[in-house]
Amino acid sequence: MNEPKHWLDRPQSATLLVRILYLACAALLLVDLFYERHGHFEFEHWFGFFCGFGFLAYVFIVNAAKVLRRLIGRPETYYQSTPQERDHD
Q1: What is the extent of the structural domain holding 26?
Q2: How many structural domains does the chain have?
Q3: Residue 46 neighbours by CB distance under 10 Å
Q4: Which DSSP string corresponds to the chain?
Q5: What's the pTM value of the predicted model, to 2 decimals?
C-alpha cells in the first residue's frame, strides 16, 4: 500500500541528523576552552583530552565486540530442535 514514509526513512533526514551530531560535537569541543578543569593528572588538562579518550574508548569497544563475536558466535542453525539436525548442516 502507499503508506506515507516516516521522516527518518528519507536520506536527507539521515544527513541532517549526522550534521547535527557533528555540530554538537564541535560545540562541546569549543566549550572545552571556556571552563576550568580540576583533574588529578596533567593530561586531564589538555584541550580535547576527553573527546579523544571517548573516541578511542568507542573504537576499542567496537573492535572488542567484533573479536568476541568471532570467539563466542554460534551458527545460524544453533537453535534448531535437535543436535543431529545441527550436525548435518
Answers
A1: 7-88
A2: 1
A3: 14
A4: --PPPPGGGSHHHHHHHHHHHHHHHHHHHHHTTSS----SSGGGGSTTHHHHHHHHHHHHHHHHHHHHHHHH---TTTTSS-HHHHHH-
A5: 0.63
* For residue 23, pLDDT beyond 90: yes
In a domain, 81, yes or no: yes
Per-residue pLDDT of 31-50, as tens digits, reads 988 988 888 999 999 998 99
For the four alpha carbons of 19, 24, 30 and 32, in that order, the dihedral sign comes to negative
Residue 2: inside a domain, yes or no? no
Backbone Cα Rg of the chain: 23
Mean pLDDT value of segment 8-23: 90
